[in-house]
Amino acid sequence: MTERTPLLHYRLAASVNEAEVRPPPAGQAVEQPPGTSRQRSAQQRQPQKLSVFFGVVIPTLLSMFSVVVFLRIGFVVGQAGLCQGIAMFLVAYFIICMTVLSVCAISTNGALDAGGAYYMISRALGPEFGGSIGIMFFLANVCGCALFVLGLVEAVVATFGIPEDGVVLSASQVLPSGYWYSLLYATAIALLCLLVCLVGAHIYAKATFLIFLVVMVVLGTIFISFFAVGPRTITLPSSSSPTPNLTGPAFPTTANFTGFKLETLLGNLWAEYTVDYTTGTMMTFATVFAVMFNGCTGIMAGSNMSGELKNPSYSIPRGTITAVIFTFIIYNLLCVLVACSCDRVLLQRDYSFLRDINIWHPLVTIGVYCSTLSAAMSNLIGASRILYALARDDLFGKVLSPAKKTSHSGNPWASVLISWFLVQLVLFSGKLNTIASIVTIFFLLVYAAVDVACLALEWASAPNFRPTFRYFTWHTCVLGIVGCAVMMFLINAIYASASIAFMLLLLLLIHYLSPTSSWGYISQALIFHQVRKYLLMLDVRKDHVKFWRPQILLMVSNPRSSVGLITFINDIKKSGLYVLGHVQLGDLNTLPSDPLQSQYDSWLSLVDHLNIKAFVNLTLADSVRHGIQHLLFISGLGGMRPNTLVLGFYDDSFPRDMLIDPSMSTIQCLDHSDPSPPFDQNPPLFHFSPLRVSSERQDCGEFGDGKALGPQEYVAVIADAMKMLKNVVLARYFNGFDRSEFLSPSFFSPGKRAVYVDVWPVNLLRPDSSSYVDTCSLFLLQLACVLNMVRAWRKAKLRLFLCVEEGQSVRGSEEKLGQLLKELRIKAQVYPVPWDQQERAEEEEEEEYVNSFPSNATRLSDNYLLAVNQLILTTAQPAPAVRFLYLPRPPADTRRYATYLRQLELLTQDLGPTLLIHGVTPVITTDL
């Protein structure tokens, strides 16, 4: 809500909390105190009536004119000199001006509601940025409140405190001094602020204009006093640290107000850093800047009044910029007047010298008390409102739930108490200059975050980001970020690093732990912007076989029976595109709405649940074949389109529901860390239809469990994909596939059996019609190699089976294949497999019939297919985790589709997890 001065909200006078008009987080029921609805309705009926001056200028000025203008102007000039002092103000105002431009841009981007800067930023940029910035706002306000309380204590002790040497110079010096007494006074002031915030915050809101008038009158008398008061000698505070003054051999007790003299100006022109008499520490440019910068904060107080302004988009830019220019002029005029009329010693040894040179001493004291007390209460109110807003948004779960409690009038008293308690802890630091660096770094970090937010909105190029305030560019945002970052590390590198690390930690915590919000995420807009740019750069005409990777469309009828296949294909994609496709039968003409829209949440929840990296693409069609054609045509974008279609095998295997099977643990198998519970119950967002429980034939195994797809259409889908130059993979026996069974660490331990992946890169239906170097065989080798490159499968061993006919040289064939594998950089063990005489006899019986067909779909006998099946089973021992087999083309004669499918079924019978693969495009090369 506010960073320094907070809610000077007009609504506080009516005891209506600004959070009441804020929409609650999605899905959250918000407690409403009695009468809230009527109060909100009444508030909505009231016109917004604060002008630029009352709604923006006054709050911002009161935020920026605080302890610095009365107690630290002399400190800045005395330590840094006039030249460096003005340079400090130029740097500080350059930083805040860049941030003001960002604030104005965000605040004018559409209609504004009440809620302050935190509300605007969080709703504009999403919970990660909003929550982390909100916490930093909260901490900045807490530390700022403590800073002003300590400044007020310093002013009180300077006026009414008994000097440490016991020499009382005035009858008003009656208060004992020292660290513990100062802490006691600070605690009392903090308690006063607490009572006002708990009981009478509206009194402060009503007195805002009066406080502003008092501060302006005091400033006026200060300017007049420089001209009206003659030269005089001023006694320095006797409570100074006994450290010798580095500018002279002795420790002076008096100093002079000389009036306007050139000699005085020349003496104050350059820097002369010495020991701060309130803390006993040596001052530097960075420490002085840290103290001075606290007088430049508070620029967001006007934007916090957005809900009370007649025209926020008009008022916030003009009012904030006006206040910034006015304060800059006042600060620099005071620096010049002070440098021309006050001795350097006076500026270094007496921070309250403006009271001694004023035409009426109590006026400055009144001004100091009013400005610091109002700033302290403003920061406490602001901190409590920010904490309350964070608690209501549930960004940190139950941690902040106590801060949601409010009174009947809507005052968040629990947040006020928590904020006051933290302020009390900060008060133990004891001195204003001690915490000034911390407060300044917090505000610089918040300003940098606001600039980052505006920069992100600008770079995202979202059509809805079109603020009416156009006097900013990404250059001003970058300059603000760089300026804030540089000054943070110049002030204190350790504090700056710790603050940045803390903010990043908050951002990560919110990103991973907070529930999904409906505010919108700037990260998604930025990702979209960059992805679109890179997709346009991904030119398909520049594709090269050296950089080929699998881009897979896996067709899934019901995910309940396909968990094993889904997770396995996620391994084999090798950082390529992975799309889960689903076809729902129906005609949109006969339906009231698209039935697929309500299913996306379930599918996306499945992707999250299985911890896979995949897209989801659903389509509505009159048949499964047409639906798959649609997906093959439209899936992907630009150069990222599926090049491989994966189907579950069409057989009569009985499906198992792996989403509720407690023995299934697919998430555990990659890193063996298992952050998720087993599948012992249905995840709440899965609304997939249940599987068939009858023992009748299941039409397509892992591919589905209904009767929507027949064998003829299934083979037609394979043929369609090949016509479209898509590689085809048929996956069988993956219904109960469990990666953890094969890839658990115990299987790779000494003494345990190894895991194998078998590759048969030859057409087993016609071994004499193909070789190991055709496109399809090389595609098998490539996919097996890709699987072996995945971290979870890296220790698995590839076994390549070389089919050698009788009469051929086994050694020569093995050496030739080994040379090919060497050229392809594939590490595999070659096993020669001689063909049995019976198998050859079976093949010879059908040779004439085979040669009469243009395709590989022949009338092979069942005995031959079963013999080949047994050969695969008996040769490959121990049994592999997965087998890769050659998939022949479907026959040209569509009447032979059923025979073709039966041949594949007999060939792969009881082989365990098996992939039948057909490649149509070159995917591997031996070239560099």
UniProtKB/TrEMBL annotation:
GO terms under cellular component: membrane
Bilayer-crossing regions: 50-74, 86-112, 133-158, 178-201, 208-229, 282-302, 323-346, 366-391, 412-429, 435-460, 472-494, 500-522
Record domain SLC12A transporter C-terminal: where: 565-652
Example GO BP: cell volume homeostasis
Superkingdom of source: Eukaryota
Record's signal peptide: none
Alphabetical list of Pfam families matching this protein: AA_permease, SLC12
One GO MF term attached to the UniProt entry: potassium:chloride symporter activity
Stretch list, region Disordered: 19-44
Matches recorded under InterPro entries: AA-permease/SLC12A_dom, SLC12_C, SLC12A_fam
Keyword list, A-Z: Membrane, Transmembrane, Transmembrane helix, Transport
Membrane topology of the entry: Multi-pass membrane protein
Domain Amino acid permease/ SLC12A: from-to ranges: 55-553
Localisation per UniProt entry: Membrane
Family: Belongs to the SLC12A transporter family.
Name of the protein described by the UniProt record: Solute carrier family 12 member 9
Native organism: Takifugu rubripes
Lineage: Eukaryota, Metazoa, Chordata, Craniata, Vertebrata
Gene coding for it: zgc:153039
